[in-house]
Amino acid sequence: SLNYDRIYNLGYYFDGGTLMDEENVLTSEWGEYSPATKISVFNYDVKLVNPKFTLTSDTLRYSTATKIANILGPSDIVSDANHIYSELGFYNTQIGQAELLDRSVLTNEGKRLTGDSLFYDRVKGYGEAFDNVIMTDTVNKNMLTGDYCYYNELTKYAFATKKAVVVDYSQGDSLFMHADTLQMYTYYLNTDSMFRETRAYHKVRMYRADVQGVCD
């Protein structure tokens, strides 16, 4: 059932309902809509379906004017390319950009990027993480840390700076390398075999049980 409060100019439902606009379909158990502000609040089993992704949440605020979804509780954004988990932030469903807080996580083809805050651009295919950043690659068995990290899911290029450290554990003993700036490349060289390359710039320190190195 749909109820309308004429005094506060609010429409709401409390036993399941749907809100639709030209881009998104939102469903939840409880919902409230303000025609004056064009802002909706949804609770319990919230689901936003867009042709390019699906967002599920416990609590969500959505503007039909700006197409921005404010994440206010545990939420998952799933597309063909990746998976995002966040408990606080916003996602612009029209231009495909997200700004996320509280250790949100971006996962793409075995790579997992997390930080105190994240920025993600779905159209351009890249993510940025800020402060206490960790990017793990379970497929290639390495980890990149720092206070800033950039990752392009289209080119598989990663960049880290500000206390940057890379750890490679693909060969048994872990290899640790620190530098002011670290860059990681993935390429194929006209074959089916994948090649990975890490470049370190300035104040480089490298350590493994059987090898150590220092350079600038």
UniProtKB/TrEMBL annotation:
Pfam families: OstA_2 (PF13100). InterPro entries: OstA-like_N. Residues 1-58 form the Organic solvent tolerance-like N-terminal domain. This is Organic solvent tolerance-like N-terminal domain-containing protein. It comes from human gut metagenome.
